[in-house]
């Protein structure tokens, strides 16, 4: 229990660092995956699997064999990473040579040197599903303690991702507000309108051209005062 408690404290610290240091989700995912390999016993390689509308992608790979294992699953359309991502479960293979759930994948994974895996549900974002996958060249590399630590890791990582996405959304909202404010100021200056009148003109241009308000504002700002 002490090991789990210490690991949870470590993950809280790591999640906090990810939130403070990462300006984008891709950077955070890569950092988290590297942390997982370093922190979870048995892990030699790692990858992140994303499933979006049935399309399987691997945006992050730590170690060549981790990428090769994910490529096999994309080619075969089966495997533990996809199951973990879509079904919100932890999935593991103790030994590729005896596992019967995904026979084609297990046989080919063993051929490239992967003997055991542990896959953890990571997050759902709209239609996107994700899983964190750990790989080992040794059979039975992930006992119950390692799987518990992996689940804690994935839970903390999901929290960090949520905070990073909120930060990105806030930054985008503030940027949009600034652009709209600039466009309003240019319209007010050129047409001698008050703030409400300038915004109404922007809104009408947006509606008439079927263009987002912020995009109309950006066009006005980029074109300069003479265009407004």
Automatic annotation (TrEMBL):
Keyword Signal belongs to the record: no
Domain spans labelled ANTAR: 160-221
Keywords carried by this UniProt record: Kinase, Transcription, Transcription regulation, Transferase
Pfam (any one): GAF_2
GO MF term set: kinase activity; RNA binding
Top-rank taxon, per record: Bacteria
Entry-linked SMART domains: ANTAR
InterPro entries: ANTAR, CheY-like_superfamily, GAF, GAF-like_dom_sf, GAF_ANTAR, WH-like_DNA-bd_sf
Protein name in the entry: ANTAR domain-containing protein
Organism placement in taxonomy: Bacteria, Bacillati, Actinomycetota, Actinomycetes, Mycobacteriales
């Amino acid at each position: 229990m002490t090991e789990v408690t210490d690991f949870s404290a470590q993950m809280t610290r790591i999640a906090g660092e990810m939130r403070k240091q990462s300006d984008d989700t891709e950077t955070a995912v890569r950092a988290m995956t590297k942390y997982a390999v370093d922190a979870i016993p048995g892990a030699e390689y790692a990858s992140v699997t994303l499933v979006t509308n049935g399309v399987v992608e691997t945006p992050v790979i730590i170690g060549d064999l981790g990428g090769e294992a994910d490529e096999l699953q994309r080619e075969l359309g089966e495997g533990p990473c996809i199951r973990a991502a879509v079904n919100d479960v932890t999935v593991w293979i103790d030994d590729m040579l005896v596992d019967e759930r995904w026979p084609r994948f297990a046989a080919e994974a063993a051929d490239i040197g992967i003997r055991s895996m542990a896959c953890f549900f990571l997050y759902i974002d709209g239609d996107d599903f994700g899983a964190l996958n750990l790989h080992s060249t040794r059979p039975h590399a992930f006992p119950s303690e390692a799987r518990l630590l992996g689940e804690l890791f994935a839970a903390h990582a999901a929290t960090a991702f949520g905070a990073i996405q909120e930060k990105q959304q806030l930054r985008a909202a503030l940027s949009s507000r600034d652009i709209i404010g600039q466009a309003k100021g240019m319209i007010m200056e050129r047409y001698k309108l008050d703030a409400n009148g300038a915004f109404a003109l922007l809104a009408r241009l947006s509606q008439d051209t079927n263009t987002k308000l912020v995009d109309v504002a950006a066009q006005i700002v980029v074109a300069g005062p003479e265009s407004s």
